[in-house]
Amino acid sequence: MATTWDDSTAGLLRLPSGRTVRGRGLRHGIPTGPDPDFGLYLLGHEPPAVDWPSRWLRWRDFWLPADRVDAADAFREAWSRSEGERAEIACLGGRGRTGTALACIAVIDGVPAAEAVAYVRAHYSPSAVETPWQRRYVARFP
């Protein structure tokens, strides 16, 4: 049975296709409500274990993913799972790396790369995607 996020979920990003992905900061703890069905965690070190399927993408704070091929694959996996599962994307603060990943997922969903940062800032957080090189990464995302 397919499960998706409720519209009142904190940190929810609704993509143009109607799919939803939750972004969050790990330092804020697990939000109330249902657990995700899948998590993509963007950290410079291995994240703590969770009770749901997850994937770790090595990504230092304020930088870019250590492996861009692995990152593109992880974003596509999160996007694919979001069709019928509760997928979440999280870094420590929930803004820079999470916003960058959400913008790349928006590109996968059909948002033009040149507009993806603005889309995520308008629909997720005004402070998403923190650095110039993160913005360039999204603009050049395949």
Q: What attributes characterize this protein structure?
A:
142 residues; alpha/beta; Protein-Tyrosine Phosphatase, Chain A; 18% strand; globular
Number of domains: 1
Strands of the widest sheet, in order across it, are: 1-2-5-3-4
| Helix content, binned percent | 25-40%
Number of helices: 4
Q: At the fourth CATH level, what is the homologous superfamily?
A: Protein tyrosine phosphatase superfamily
Give the C-alpha Rg.
Answer: 13 Å
Please give the CATH architecture. Answer: Alpha-Beta Complex
Helix-strand category: alpha/beta
- Low-confidence segments, given as residue ranges, are none
Give the H and E element order.
EEEEHEHHH
- Mean of all residue-level pLDDT scores: 96
Note the beta-strand portion.
15-25%
**Can you summarize the main beta sheet?**
5 strands, mixed
Strand segment tally: 5
Q: Describe the global form.
A: globular
What is the CATH C-level name? Alpha Beta
> What is CATH's topology name?
Protein-Tyrosine Phosphatase, Chain A
Distance between the termini: 32 Å
Q: How would you explain this protein's 3D organization?
A:
By secondary structure, the chain is an alpha/beta fold. The chain has helices at residues 68-81, 96-108, 113-123, 132-139; strands at residues 12-14, 20-25, 38-43, 54-58, 87-91. The protein has one domain: Protein-Tyrosine Phosphatase, Chain A (Alpha-Beta Complex). The protein contains four helices and five strands. It has a five-stranded mixed beta sheet with strand order 1-2-5-3-4, covered by helices on one side. The longest helix has 14 residues, at 68-81. The mean pLDDT is 96.
